[in-house]
Amino acid sequence: MIIEFEGKTPKIHPSAWIAPTAVIIGDVEIGPDSSVFYGSVLRGDVNAIRIGARTNIQDNSVLHVDGDAPCILGDDVTVGHMALVHGTTVGDGTLVGMKSSLLSRSVIGSGALIAAGAVVLEGMEIPDRVLAAGVPAKIRRELSEEQSAGFIPHAGRYVDLAKRHNAALN
């Protein structure tokens, strides 16, 4: 469902795929070959949500904003099932684990891994190519270039998967 809010209509690239049960509200832009899976909500009501190319938002995830904190996801980002991404900036090629929470004004670098269930506190900065895990999240170790680079093909598999879901529904 695509909802205009206070004069702002979501802008979705023609090659992006939105599941029929996803809800996209307000000032949201979704880039090429990106996907938003079933039950996810992207609510750009009091600030902007920007999603780059080939980024996937998996089932039942929530992206929201604060008045002073937009939600910006780069290219080739994977947001795992049931994640909460709230007023956060996420760099290219990062994997956000299932049921993790990224709180307002946090900044996640490129090629990072946020472990499943992690809670990244407000204003926390996670550098490029590290594993952050725990409640609250702490940097556990650096990732090798090879490990970090592996997140990009993962995002690419979701480009293909979204096309298959689109075909199944049409």
UniProtKB/TrEMBL annotation:
Domain of life: Bacteria
TM region positions: none
Classification via CDD domains: LbH_gamma_CA_like
UniProt cross-references to Gene3D superfamilies, sorted A to Z: Hexapeptide repeat proteins
PANTHER family the record matches: DYNACTIN SUBUNIT P25 (PTHR13061), GAMMA CARBONIC ANHYDRASE-LIKE 1, MITOCHONDRIAL-RELATED (PTHR13061:SF29)
The protein's name: Gamma carbonic anhydrase family protein
